[in-house]
Design goal:
It is a single chain. The protein is of the alpha/beta class. The protein contains 17 helices and eight strands. It has a single domain (2-336), classed as Metal-dependent hydrolases (TIM Barrel). The chain has an eight-stranded parallel sheet. Strand 5 (190-195), helix 10 (201-209) and strand 6 form a beta-alpha-beta unit. Helix 5 (71-85) runs parallel beside helix 7 (109-127) and helix 16 (299-311) runs antiparallel to helix 17. It is globular, with a radius of gyration of 19 Å. Bound molecules: hypoxanthine and zinc ion. Zinc ion (ZN) is lined by residues 14, 16, 166, 194, 217, 275.
């Protein structure tokens, strides 16, 4: 099963580039930038990665970001991620970045964006991995702050395909960002939002009705509302599910209780993603592997998740069809031997 997953062509649609910051690289960049980390060693930093909820994680995640200063730092971070997933049969990525997490520390929007974007261009050239960049608004900050961030993105419409919403969910409902999402849509950006990770199903409904999102990031709590599940199925709204993130952040108590099989059974358009792989213990293949047993190691279901990753991507219909054909060819080859 491991080798089936390793070679299965797949897309990643829920990945925070700042969440790919491996401790080894963090120490290296800290040294380059003459920053002293509040941890003695790579091992000590690893040991800090024990979270009891989303906020616990976010505190460490924002602290880690602090080390990123130059365009080269953002390039190196993104390049390290691409090198990893180029070994995982990942052929398309749509990655999030958190501009406000950098701008508020005096790092320009362009420094972060250009560093990330240049690495993605190189990844497309060298590994054939196509990509899109989605900038997220930090929901613990104000809508006014989000508007200022959107303004910064306007000269870079050629490099940014969409806007998202992340950070502390509880107490920061999608409704707080209705107007800025309307403006983002008007400007032609795709729109997505984290909802139903820790927040109630109502936040998913708000994201659909008020923000008019095209995908829901996470969406786990939809299962508490049968009418909402029915709607998500009928409207074919993709849910970007992140198994290792869910257990690490205690959204799910144990992988054996992960709702993914129930979500598939309900007909929801789900796929697998890694969210913040450096912090949650695995990249895309490790997430597929973590869930595989729950799906009885059924190759058809694993392939279905890969197909959904392309169906749900912001790709042209032509590119979707080509990518899905590759998944189906791969499955046919593996089912015949
Ligand atoms: N949820 C919310 N905000 C985030 C996450 C997440 O899983 N990862 C990085 N920012
Ligand atoms: Zn996320």
């Amino acid at each position: 099963m491991k080798s089936f997953i390793e070679g299965l062509p797949k897309a990643e649609l829920h990945l925070h580039i700042e969440g790919t910051f491996e401790p080894e690289l963090m120490f290296k960049l800290a040294e380059r930038n003459a920053i002293t980390l509040p941890y003695e060693s790579v091992e000590a930093l690893h040991e800090a990665y024990n979270f009891s909820n989303l906020q616990d994680f976010l505190d460490i995640y924002y602290q880690g970001m602090n080390v990123l200063r130059s365009e080269q730092d953002f390039y190196d971070l993104t390049w390290a991620y691409l090198q990893r997933v180029s070994q995982q049969a990942v052929t398309h990525v749509e990655i999030f970045f958190d501009p406000q997490g950098h701008v508020e520390r005096g790092i320009s929007f362009e420094t972060a964006l250009i560093g990330i974007y240049s690495a993605l261009q190189q990844g497309q050239k060298q590994f054939g991995i196509s990509f899109g960049v989605i900038m997220c608004f930090l929901r613990h900050l104000s809508e006014e702050d989000a508007f200022e961030t959107l303004e910064m993105a306007l000269p870079h419409k050629d490099k940014i395909i969409g806007v998202g919403l992340d950070s502390s969910e509880a107490g920061n409902p999608p409704s707080k960002f209705t107007r800025v999402f309307a403006k983002a849509r008007e400007e032609g950006f795709h729109v997505v939002a984290h909802a139903g990770e820790e927040g109630p199903p109502e936040y998913i409904i708000e994201a659909l009705d008020l923000l008019k999102v095209e995908r829901i990031d996470h969406g786990n709590t939809c299962l508490q509302d049968a009418a909402l599940v029915k709607r998500l199925v009928a409207e074919k709204i993709p849910l970007t599910v992140c198994p290792l993130s869910n257990t690490k952040l205690c959204v799910v108590d144990d992988m054996k209780n992960h709702p993914l099989p129930a979500m598939l059974k309900a007909g929801l358009q789900v796929m697998i993603n890694s969210d913040d792989p450096a912090y949650f213990g695995g990249y895309l293949n490790e997430n597929y592997a973590a869930i595989s047993g729950l799906l009885d190691n059924d190759k058809n279901l694993l392939a279905k998740l890969a197909v959904n990753s392309f169906t749900s991507a912001f790709l042209s219909d032509e590119n979707k069809v080509a990518a899905i054909a590759k998944v189906n060819d791969y499955l046919a080859r593996h089912n015949s031997n």
